[in-house]
Each structure stands twice: as structure tokens, then as C-alpha cells.
Amino acid sequence: MKLAAVDIGSNAIRLQITNVINYQGNINFKKLEYLRFPLRLGNDVFYHKNISDKNRRKFLKLMKAFKILIDLYEVDDYMVCATSAMRESENGRKIVEEVKEDIGLKIHIIDGNKEADLINKALGAYIDDKAYLHIDVGGGSTELNIYKDKNKIASKSFKIGSVRTMDSQEDPKVWKKMDKFIQENISEKQKITCIGTGGNINKIFELSKPSKNKRYLHIEKIQEIQHYLEGFTFEERVNVLNLNNDRADVIIPASKIYLHAMKAAKSKRMIVPDVGLKDGVMNLLYERNK
């Protein structure tokens, strides 16, 4: 069974095509194709409320290219999800209709709760009967989910993200709202472990040079990497640290969001499982096609 997931984010757009193999009762998800294109829709939307005509034309070309790949791989099922930039843009729905009519690709504009639910589908292997705060930082929004005894007990989406925060486009009150949500749902005596998802925390994890089979970071290490990154100019982060242009400018704002949530929860440790929205979509597609 071949499945495809497209994640239309605020900072970049991703396509993953996966072959699901059932061998002797064991299910294996084998990645066939992965593409990440740095189309930053968030810059348009968070400043001007609309996707510019230039980026609209790029977006249509990209969706056409993705549709060609989906057809070439003879995918059995697919799902295209658009998050905060598309759902907040005044012309987002019009562009979605244009893609459907001209290219034949159906795009789902999902809210923060649906986004969190999809990501959670990929986290099952990392959650046990302890208490967890899941922090997913995107370009335009941050989703927080709190788990206890393997059950999600609270969830909320906040209009704060790496692109939106980069030039202080977020409402200053949102930080206090995030603190309030965490404090209302986590007791001071409760020991909680964080789970971090998103491209920026994965890059921070990579920069920490972890030992083999280690998938977690202590808060001190995240702070250390943040200070390390702040010691470089944007050009140095691109040319010395070899970060992509669209990663080099958002990774520090993103690190501040992760650290803010961890400190509010009084958490000292974060698991970094390297899963995201596209992985949750894959799980959803598999469940409805198995």
C-alpha cells in the first residue's frame, strides 16, 4: 500500500510518500520519497493577511509537482493538510479551490486541535503511564498537549510560532495564556517530561551531537545550543553551521518557545522523537485503508 502526506506549513511545505509493507504480520512504513520546499507563506499572512500573488503562483506550481509525483508513484491514498498560515490568510480558501479545480488535489485546512490530534497519532510509542507535555512548534502556531496515564487530558493551540515570533508578530498576551494553560493542567508537585516535535527541535537535537540511540535533551543542553546559535550571525549559521536559510533565522525564536513551555511546566527533560504532522497523517491513512 502506497500513501502520501503533504504538510503545508507556515515556513515550508513537505511531501512524503510511504510504502506500507505487511510482512508476516509485521507492519513496516518504508519511506519512498521526501521533499521539503522552503515556501514561507507565513511571511505573507502574518504581515499582510494574504498570500501574495508571487507566492500563490509558486504554491500552484509546487502543488502541481506534488500531484505529478503522487500519480507517478501510483499512491493508493493521500491527504494534504494546511495549517496556520493557510487558515489565517484571507485568500487561502480561494487558493485551495483553485488547486482542486486546476490540479485535482484536495487540500484540507485544519484547525489547531486537528493538527495536534494528527501529530499525536505518531507519538504512541513514546507515551506511557507517566505525565507528559507535548510541545509542537510550527511556523505560525504552537500546539500543547498534556498526557497522563496514556490519556490526553488537555490540549490547546496558541498563535505563536517560529516565523510569527521572529519579528514579534505574536500577541504579547499569548505567552501568559500559554503559562496559564500549563499551570491549570499540571500540578506543581507533578514531575513531567516534555516531548518536542517540529523541525527546529530536531535540528537543535542534531546540533547537540547526541550519543547513539539517545532521543532526549536536558533543558540545560537546549539552553546551551540556543546560546551557541546566538553567537553566530545569520550568514554564519548558514555558511558555518550549514543550516538552510529558512532554518537559520527561525531556529532561535523556536528554541525560546520550547524553553518557555518547559520552564512553565518545571520540566527538565525533553524527548525528541523526530515525528511530525506528516507521520500522523500516514497513521490516519493507514488506519482507514488497512
From TrEMBL:
<protein>
    <submittedName>
        <fullName>Phosphatase</fullName>
    </submittedName>
</protein>
<dbReference type="InterPro" id="IPR043129">
    <property type="entry name" value="ATPase_NBD"/>
</dbReference>
<feature type="domain" description="Ppx/GppA phosphatase N-terminal">
    <location>
        <begin position="28"/>
        <end position="282"/>
    </location>
</feature>
<dbReference type="InterPro" id="IPR003695">
    <property type="entry name" value="Ppx_GppA_N"/>
</dbReference>
<dbReference type="Pfam" id="PF02541">
    <property type="entry name" value="Ppx-GppA"/>
</dbReference>
<dbReference type="GO" id="GO:0016462">
    <property type="term" value="F:pyrophosphatase activity"/>
</dbReference>
<dbReference type="InterPro" id="IPR050273">
    <property type="entry name" value="GppA/Ppx_hydrolase"/>
</dbReference>
